[in-house]
Amino acid sequence: HSNNKFFESIGRQMGFDKVSHYARLFGLGEPAGHNIFEEHPGLFPEKPPQYGGVARMSSYGEGIHVTPLQLASIGATLANGGTVYYLQYPRTVEERRSFAPLVKRKLDIEAYLPDVREGMLAAVLYGTGRSAFDPEGEQTLGKTGTCSDQGSRLGWFMSYSDQVKPRLVVAVLLRGRNHVINGGSAAD
User: What is the rounded average pLDDT of the residues 6-33?
Assistant: First the structure.
């Protein structure tokens, strides 16, 4: 279950500079891809948002614009134990044949991952992402989000399956003008 007051408190305690530092380590505010010319870098504020400051930013994402590619990159980083890879889009046969992973940076997050994964599993088992649960498939971990942007509602869901050997990350972003658009519907 979402606990916005908790994350507001954590944001205030950490302060804007520290929250920004960690957000940027995960790739917010920069392109996730390598030579994906169509990609937008999203937006991470240079200063605390006017409405709610770092507390609101840390709980509701105030002032942050995240792209589906950035969500997928964050999911891959959590799934693989802390390596941030450049996302790549090989467009030709030769690019596919010579494809090799490109490391952007490595994060020392291994000690924190059991707690993060427990929360992501709970979101799918009984939280806002429960519609993604497949009792006959591999166990999925996920995170939902709901927000608004310029009169539209956004619902997103980021997930990966198989905690032991994760191989697939999924990022879903829905946009619409009614309350049906939310994180739960993106998980569905």
Answer: 96
